[in-house]
Specification:
Shape: elongated
Radius of gyration: 25 Å
Largest sheet: 6 strands, mixed
Number of helices: 3
Low-confidence stretches: 177-186
Mean pLDDT: 85
Bound molecules: zinc ion
Amino acid sequence: MHKGLPTLPLPRDRLRKGPLAVEADLKVADDLGAVGFELHGTPRVSITAEESQGGRVLISGTMTVRLAEVCSRCLKVVDREHSIPLDFQFEPGLDPWDEAPGVYALDGNQDEMDAGPALREELLLALPEYPLCRSECRGLCPRCGADLNEGDCDCEEGTGDPRWDALRTRLASDGFAANDDERQDG
Ligand SMILES: [Zn+2]
Ligand SMILES: [Zn+2]
């Protein structure tokens, strides 16, 4: 279910008077729109917003978020808390099409700016590309699917690419011995 983008309004006239510290929950859709991740609870942001000369608004601070992530090797779901450092800015007059990680467009005509969508973007950027349950995760056996973290499976090691199994079986039944040791996998 799409719940729309989160909002975190920051009043511009208040920003002009000096740095503004904000602690807030960021209401983001639970699935984040990112495959392999699910939010547990609501992300908490603790930021300082500061308007610089020239009208740029600098945001710094941290976002704390609890996520269920699917290990990219063994597919186990791990529950983990991340503390994401935040350091990005809003640039007045920037064309939204020219936004880049860390630099967002700021509509100079509005009394209130919204840091919510940018915070969601920063959260997505901080997600690991290949989450792991632990760095030494052994993953699943590519042949039988057994979780190798729980022990070795019965598949012989070094039997090579399972896509060759049919051919290997036929060669064996024809009286040939498939020699795995000499094959170099690509
Ligand atoms: Zn794993
Ligand atoms: Zn196996």
